[in-house]
Amino acid sequence: MTIKESPYPLIFRPLIKQTLWGGSKLGQLLGKPIGDENNYAESWEIVDHGQDQSVVENGPLAGKTLSGLIQNDASWTLGKSTSDAMFPLLLKYLDCNRVLSVQVHPDDAYGQTMQVPDRGKTEAWYVVDVQPGSLIYAGLKRGVDREALAEAMAAGETDRVLHSFSPNPGDCVFIPAGTVHALGAGLVIAEIQQSSDTTFRLFDWNRIGADGNPRPLHVEQSLEVSDYESGPVQARQSDPAIDGWQRLVACDKFELSSLEKGSGEVGGDQRFHILTVPHGTATLHTPTETMELSRGQSVLLPAAMPECSISVDAESTVLRAE
User: Fold this and answer.
1) Would residue 201 show up in a list of annotated catalytic residues for this protein?
2) Which of 98, 142, 201, 236 is catalytic?
3) Which of 123, 244, 272, 319 is the most exposed place for a label (fewest CB within 10 A)?
4) Which residues contact 41 (CB under 8 A, 6 or more apart)?
């Protein structure tokens, strides 16, 4: 069977990343294949970035990498209008067992000037789970300019110039390139981002590493790419009473929508679509099969996929990125 004869939902085995700030909720809440340790930080659901590759688990394309599918037939995978040679987005789940470092990402233009050129990184977060007291840090406070940020960084007090708020499950936070940000302890997040590894660290909460030294900071790069105009970032919410898709984010890098009630159409438009289920369950109806999706499961509909429909039961949510 050729790739052109296989327009069905693609299921990939997640890539599980372990770090010191991870926990065990990826397995407990989302059913990810973790082991006995307690430091599972990220589950990369769909990725095509260097050595990090999603591998198909289902159907006649099982064992093929996402990169390999694109090289074989980019229009089948990505769509007729694409000029990309790699998949442009990355979907992941994060378990933040402790507060993450304060970071900022450059835009595409700056990314191309780096020693190892890469895309910039614009991203969006969907809050899956929250512990009492959890915070999100998103954007600088009003009036904070480059000089004020530099002074706070030099004093080890970067947190005092950051906007923060207590999120709720279902909140969506849009983080354009240049937005200073951090995820607090006790959060489980679904993240859609440009497929990129361009990250600058401003502040690591004055922590000391296992070697007795603080982790290095990217002071000049951070000051150069940070956005001093946009100010605080606020959470966005959908309306759970509305049937069908609701758009949460629309930018030049991706669109993110949610389905919390009823059903919605997807596919059949010569665009790829990513679906993931952060809450509950969902049922995907294709022209040839019905697929039950459980909590934490993600699928990719290649651009060649004919129109499908997806429905959710009570207390369930599907996210769609494209």
Assistant:
1) yes
2) 201
3) 244
4) 17, 18, 19, 21, 22, 23, 94, 95, 96, 97
